[in-house]
Design a protein that fits this description.
The chain is about 50% helix and about 15% strand. It is α+β, with helices and mostly antiparallel strands. The protein has a two-stranded antiparallel ribbon with strand order 1-2. Helix 1 packs antiparallel against helix 2. It is flat.
Length: about 80
């Protein structure tokens, strides 16, 4: 199935909520279902993204440590001065 990136992000957000609460055997079933739906065959990347989405991570910003929530939101594109 061909999903747009916005649809894939919504699907990932839904699966992430379910994935974190389960034990290992149930996580395997959810992961198989997710990979079949998305059409991706890279299990390790799917595990990484499902486990990481929505977690808080301590980062150094302007010489201060800040808790940042990890999301798959796109960042702004850099705008450069024209020559």
């Amino acid at each position: 199935m061909g999903f747009t990136m916005a649809e894939k992000k919504k699907i990932k957000a839904e699966y992430t909520k379910r994935y974190r609460k389960l034990n290992k055997a149930e996580k395997t079933k959810i992961l198989n279902e997710y990979l079949e739906l998305i059409g991706n065959n890279n299990r390790k990347h799917a595990i990484y993204t499902l486990d990481r989405e929505g977690k808080k991570q301590l980062r150094l910003i302007d010489k201060k440590y800040v808790n940042v929530e990890i999301t798959s939101a796109t960042s702004k594109k850099r705008v450069y001065k024209k020559y």
